Amino acid sequence: MKFEQVPWPIIILSVLSILMGITLLGSAIFGLFTFSIFTILIAVSLGIVSIHLGKSLWNGKKWAYFAIILWGTMGMMASIMHIVLPLISPLFEKAIFENILGAMLEIVIVLYFINNEKIKKHFGFAQYTKVKEIIRRSKDFLAREDSLDSWLVSLVIVFLFIKFIFFPLLSLATGTSLPLVVVESCSMYHETNFDDWWFRNAAWYESKNITKEDFLSYSSTNGLNKGDIILTWGYSDYKKGDIIIFAAPTKYPLIHRIIQENPLSTKGDHNLGQLDVEKNIPKSDVIGKEALRIPALGWLKLIFFEPFKPEGQRGFCQ
């Protein structure tokens, strides 16, 4: 479509979308040796979608019109939620001013797209198409149309919903900044049944005044396996035997079992002894404790990271 035929707001959005896509693809290329393959795939995917959206906006494709309305509505909801959440819980950073600006911008864009006749004409709508009809057609595009563009819009909506709405609400409900964590190592793994495991490890635990009967009363008596997903709970105190997630001077937080309450100390069930970083843990470093274990589902994430780990840390626990 010729430059003079494109409304100026569409020109701005189209150029910004294409530039964003190029930036995302560039970051993926420059991050080949530093980013995980998962991060690179996300950046490449979003970059391609962003460039495709920019071109489609310029050419007046209806799917791009629906995408702006639907993504803008989702972004507006997320911004409003992030204005309210810091007022409810200290878990969330106070960026109220930025979120107010974001919500206002998204409201303006959505309302402008729905009500401006030049914009609607650019995307092939009949003159004076009613707002109710546009909303209906947006819903039909999302729910009924079976096209690649419809799937792209749906996938991005799911991504936005999970990242900016579902996880913050889950954090509020569980009282922790990390409501879901994936077990990424074998430090809590039991390679045999409990009796055999205890026979090999009893001496160490009994030296800490932990008997077999004590251990059997603990959560996840048979340990955790690499790839398990843990639902974290932050609204309670921590006691001996709880499996906690805590920040440490390591690449990721540690997931180990409390073996002493004062000072707070932990140990991985599979480890021969304690790490120095877990012998006196400040309570302020505790993120939460295990509330629920979902076996193996975390491998959907780990498969993107495993090839970049040292050889001895790859694969299943043995």
Give the topology.
Blueprint: H1 8-30, H2 37-58, H3 62-88, H4 96-115, H5 117-122, H6 131-143, H7 148-174, E1 180-182, H8 194-206, H9 212-216, E2 229-233, E3 243-246, E4 254-260, E5 265-267, E6 286-294, H10 299-302
Helix pairs in contact: 1-2, 2-3, 3-4, 3-7
Could you characterize the architecture of this molecule?
- This protein is 50% helix and 10% strand.
- The chain is an alpha+beta fold and 318 residues long.
- It has a six-stranded antiparallel beta sheet.
- The longest helix has 27 residues, at 62-88.
- The chain is elongated and about 80 Å long.
- The termini are far apart.
- The model has no long low-confidence stretch (mean pLDDT 90).
Descriptors:
Umud Fragment, subunit A
In short:
It contains ten helices and six strands. By secondary structure, it is of the alpha+beta class.
List low-confidence stretches: none
Radius of gyration: 25 Å
The rough form would be described as elongated
Helix content: 40-55%
Order of helices and strands: HHHHHHHEHHEEEEEH
Which class do the helix and strand fractions yield? alpha+beta
- The domain count comes to 2
Count of helical stretches: 10
SS elements, strand count: 6
The largest beta-sheet arranges its strands as: 1-2-6-3-4-5
CA(first)-CA(last) distance = 60 Å
Strand content is 5-15%
Average residue-wise pLDDT: 90
Largest sheet, in brief, is: 6 strands, antiparallel
What is the assembly state of the chains in this entry?
A: single chain
